[in-house]
Amino acid sequence: MKNAKRICFITAFTFLGFSGSVFSACGNPDECFAAGLQSMDSGKFDKAVTFFEQASKLKPENTYYRYALAVSLGANGDYQGAVKGLKEVVKEQPDFQLAWNYLRFFWIRSGDFAGADKFFAESSKKHSKNPEIYLNRSYILFETGDYHNARLNAEKAADLRENYAEAYFLLGNIHRKTSD
């Protein structure tokens, strides 16, 4: 599981154009960020948290630094810290798909399904055309056994994004659970 999280995390930031090697001390936010990525890649999540915290302090307006901090907190086992940080990120950038997905992942890990459902429900009212919100709410509802509402949210996600494979995959799982 840790390898999958690391690969997904590093892939996301490579896609965004970030790379780097470990610096023993970082004097600017880009160096801190690069050192945090390298720490995540080597499984040193506590060090990654430290580097991403420093990058975020040096350049608090950079959403990607705060996103990286939140994901590293979750990777280090601080699920509530990850959820708190990711909620801020998606409020600022509602189209940041990976942030929504990690938010759902760490919220499920934290076990706060009621809080997650409430946040995703409120977010769907503000951003009614964002399929990620509906898909991730569907996963939360699926985890709680509310298959009817999980299906409705997954269908809404599929309606909003053409050929949305993940939504259809979840709909298949919901169908398997409800067709006994």
Task: Describe the model.
The chain has 180 residues and is an all-alpha fold. It has helices spanning 2-15, 29-41, 45-58, 63-75, 79-92, 97-110, 113-126, 131-144, 147-160, 165-178. The longest helix has 14 residues, at 2-15. It is elongated, with a radius of gyration of 17 Å. The chain starts with a helix and ends with a helix.
- List low-pLDDT spans: 14-24
Characterize the largest beta sheet: strand count, sense, and whether it forms a barrel.
none
Number of strands: 0
Percent range of helical residues: over 70%
Tally the helices: 10
Mean pLDDT: 88
| Oligomer type | single chain
Instruction: Determine Rg (CA atoms, Å).
Output: 17 Å
Please tell me what the overall shape is: elongated
Tell me the β content: under 5%
**Ends apart, CA distance between termini:** 31 Å
Q: What is the structural class?
A: mainly alpha
Q: How are helices and strands ordered from N to C?
A: HHHHHHHHHH
Condensed summary:
This protein is mainly alpha-helical and 180 residues long. The protein is 77% helix and 0% strand.
